[in-house]
Design a protein that fits this description.
446 residues, alpha/beta, Aspartate Aminotransferase, domain 1
C-alpha cells in the first residue's frame, strides 16, 4: 500500500509538471495585433499556477467543498480582516444569501419582515435588487451622481422613512460610495447594511477595505471581476451568528453545520428537539430556514486560492490602466464626463466609465459603435435605470426624488476595460481610437 501511494504521489507530481508545461505552451499571451485582436472590456487573467491548482483539485475528485474551499474561505477572510467568509456559486447568490439571512427568525425583532423598506439605487445591477424583491421587501430607489455613479448622499438621507430597515448598495465600478453618510444613517436609524462589493475588491475608503463596513458583504468571482473562479462568489461578515444563518441559507436551509463528509460534530445529532419533529430527529435533516443549494465546487476554490494571492497585483494594474486612460482622455472633457474618485476613496477600478455630454455633437451609440467597429469592447453601465426594464416594471417600490441621472446613464453612459489583461499596446490602441473619433472619423470610414 505504501509503495502504491508513493507511485501515485509521483504520478501526481508528474501530471502537475506536465500541466505547467501545457499552460506555458498553450496559454502564454502573445503580442497584441491591433489588426486582429479584440480589446476585451474584462476577462480572466491566469497562469500556470491556476491551472495546476485546478487539476490538483480534480485529481482529488472530491468535487464539492473540501481542502481548497477551506483554504480559500480562510484566505479571503484574512485578506479582509473579517471572521467569516462563505464561498457560494456566484455574486448574485451571495447577495441572495446575504439579504435572505437578514429575514431569519433567529434575529428576533431585528429581522427584516415583508413590507420593510430597503434603500438602494435605481442605476445598479439587477441582482443587487432582486433579493430584496424576492424576500417581499420593498426597494426604495434613489438617484446617483453622474461623476462617480454612486448614491447621492442627500437622496439617501431623504429616503429614510418609518419602515426603512436596511440599506443595500454596491460600490459602483469599484468606486466606494459615501460611507460617512451611509454609516451615519445606519447608526442613527438602527439599519442593516449589506455592502455589495462585487465590483470593488481591493477598494478603500479612508484607508479601510470596502467589504468590511457592512453587517454582511458580498463579492463576485465571475471572470469580469477582480479575481475569478469562473463562476463563484463570497459572503463575508464579522458576525458569527449572521455567518451561521448565511451558511444555513447556502446549504439548503439546514440547521446542521457539519462540513461535507462529517457527522455529529455537535455530539447531539440524535438528542435534540426541533419544533414538532420527533425527539432525536436526525439533525442533518432539520431545516431552520428556507434555503437553497448555493455552494460552489472545490475545483473553483482551487483557482481562487491562487487568484487571491495575486489580488494586489491585479488591483495595481487596474489603477495603472485607469490612470493612463484618465490622463489621455482628459483632452475630451468638454464632450465626455470622465470618472472621478471622490474624497476619502481609493478605488480598485472595475472599468473606465464615460458619459457623453448632451451637447457633445455625437451620441453614445455613435462613439460606442465606432469603438466596437475597431474591436474595442464596450458595455453599458449595467441596467441604467432598473425601473425601465420589464422585470422591474411591476414591482412594489418607492422612489425618492427624480431619477434624472439614472435616466441619463441609461441614454448616454458606457465603459471600456481597465482589467490587467489590457497591456500598453492595447491602451495605446484605445487612446488612438478615441482620438480618431474625436477628430471626426466614424465607423465604416470618415
Amino acid at each position: 500500500m505504501t509503495e502504491a501511494r508513493t507511485d501515485a504521489a509521483a504520478t501526481r507530481s508528474e501530471i502537475l509538471d506536465l500541466v505547467g508545461r501545457y499552460a506555458r505552451e498553450r496559454h502564454t499571451p502573445g503580442p497584441f495585433d491591433p489588426a486582429r485582436d479584440p480589446v476585451r472590456y474584462a476577462g480572466r487573467v491566469f497562469g500556470e499556477e491556476e491551472l495546476r491548482a485546478l487539476v490538483d483539485s480534480a485529481l482529488d475528485f472530491y468535487l464539492t467543498a473540501s481542502r481548497f474551499t477551506e483554504a480559500f474561505e480562510a484566505g479571503f477572510a484574512e485578506y479582509l480582516g473579517l471572521g467569516n467568509a462563505l464561498f457560494v456559486n456566484s455574486g448574485s447568490s451571495a447577495n441572495l444569501a446575504a439579504v435572505t439571512a437578514l429575514t431569519s427568525p433567529r434575529l428576533g425583532d431585528r429581522r427584516l419582515q415583508p413590507g420593510d423598506e430597503v434603500v438602494t439605487v435605481a442605476a445598479g445591477f439587477p441582482s443587487t435588487v432582486s433579493p430584496i424583491v424576492q424576500n417581499r421587501l420593498v426597494p426604495v430607489f434613489v438617484d446617483v451622481r453622474l461623476d462617480d455613479y454612486n448614491a447621492d448622499p442627500d437622496a439617501l438621507r431623504a429616503a429614510i422613512g418609518p419602515r426603512t430597515r436596511a440599506i443595500v448598495l454596491a460600490h459602483t465600478m469599484g468606486v466606494p460610495y459615501d460611507l460617512d453618510t451611509v454609516m451615519e444613517l445606519v447608526a442613527a436609524h438602527d439599519l442593516w447594511l449589506v455592502e455589495d462589493n462585487c465590483d470593488a475588491l481591493g477598494s478603500r475608503y479612508r484607508g479601510r477595505l470596502t467589504g468590511t463596513f457592512g453587517h454582511v458583504a458580498t463579492s463576485s468571482f465571475y471572470p469580469a471581476h477582480h479575481i475569478t473562479t469562473g463562476e463563484g462568489g463570497m459572503v463575508v461578515t464579522d458576525d458569527d451568528a449572521l455567518a451561521a444563518i448565511v451558511r444555513s441559507v447556502r446549504d439548503w436551509g439546514r440547521d446542521c453545520y457539519c462540513a461535507g463528509g462529517e457527522n455529529n460534530t455537535c455530539g447531539k445529532r440524535f438528542a435534540q428537539q426541533f419544533g414538532t419533529l420527533p425527539f432525536g430527529y436526525d439533525h442533518k435533516y432539520v431545516y431552520s430556514h428556507l434555503g437553497y443549494n448555493l455552494k460552489a465546487t472545490d475545483m473553483q476554490a482551487a483557482i481562487g486560492t491562487v487568484q487571491l494571492a495575486r489580488v494586489d497585483e491585479f488591483v495595481a494594474a487596474r489603477k495603472r490602466n485607469h490612470a493612463r486612460l484618465r490622463e489621455a482622455l482628459a483632452l475630451y472633457a468638454d464632450r465626455l464626463v470622465l470618472p472621478t474618485a471622490p474624497p476619502n476613496t481609493d478605488p480598485s477600478w472595475f472599468g473606465f466609465v464615460v458619459t457623453v455630454r448632451e451637447d457633445a455633437g455625437f451620441t453614445r451609440g455613435e462613439l460606442a459603435g465606432y469603438l466596437e467597429s475597431r474591436r474595442i469592447e464596450t458595455r453599458s453601465l449595467f441596467s441604467g435605470n432598473l425601473l425601465r426594464h420589464p422585470a422591474f416594471a411591476g414591482i412594489e417600490h418607492r422612489v425618492v426624488g427624480e431619477l434624472s441621472v439614472s435616466d441619463a446613464i441609461t441614454e448616454r453612459t458606457f465603459f471600456v476595460g481597465v482589467y490587467p489583461g489590457i497591456d500598453d499596446g492595447r491602451l495605446d490602441y484605445i487612446v488612438e481610437a478615441f482620438g480618431r473619433f474625436m477628430a471626426g472619423e466614424r465607423a465604416g470610414g470618415r
